Amino acid sequence: MSGEEEENAAELKIGDEFLKAKCLMNCEVALILEHKYDQLQQMSDDPRNQVSQVFEKSLQYVKRFSRYKNPDAVKQVREILSRYQLTEFELCVLGNLCPETVEEAIAMVPSIQAKGRVHDDDAIDKMLNDLALIKKFE
Amino acid sequence: MFLKVQLPWNVVIPAESLDIKGLMLQKSIVVRLLDEFASRKATKDLGYLLALTTLESIGEGRVREHTGDVLFPVAFSGITFKLFRGEIAEGVVHKVLKHGVFLSCGPVENIYLSKLKMPDYDYVPGENPVFMNSKMSKIEKGSTVRFIVIGTKWLESEREFQALVGLHADYLGPVS
Q: Are residues B83 and B152 in contact, defined by beta-carbon separation less than 8 angstroms?
């Protein structure tokens, strides 16, 4: 980001390469890493020998911070959030933190209310309700 | 934030592990990549390297003079973790000091929340020191805290990131 505007995720200034990169929600990462871990377990007796510290710490983290555990629910969360013209980054912050109110959602992802975006309070409210429903029926 | 990235990489396969069949070559490339992932730990641009998901393509191998090792340009997708300035995330407190607390978030362990960045919390000394505010909200070892990233720093020698975080916005603080 050198020589460019200062990085600020709240205004979606995170560098083009990351803005376009696919972000992953904690619950998605949990599914992928658990699957990897199982694969390694089949290959050796003690999978802990096989994984790096970075892997292990991340797995612990995403297990603790996944709001949705069921793979179908995880898929649905992404599907529902994708309907709201969010960037990948915004989508994942919302999916990770699961704000309960419109005010909280805007505080977590200030960019969703930036000028020129289509999100009014009603749209955000509907989105949060949809998310809460998935959690309820998980 | 966890990211799914596509990366070009050069993998060097030692000459002695080459006299085997094609399938094994793919395996040695993956094994090699995993090794490098683990030893590299992180890069300044991409953040922490977590896992390799798919090997997209293996290019034409080039024999290196003298050693006979073969270098393969490969492309693969993997998962990385990076904290961005302004990002809001949740972490776990692992150390409480007089001047602030240290948190971990994903693979990052050096996340510092200074006392100055949580002005309504006061340090309460004791066997298990805590930070507490007037509403009896507590930050102690093991607490989950939602924070905003103020800045990050890449440490080349340790190959890791440090981050400074704060609680100076709405809806931040300990999460029960």
A: yes
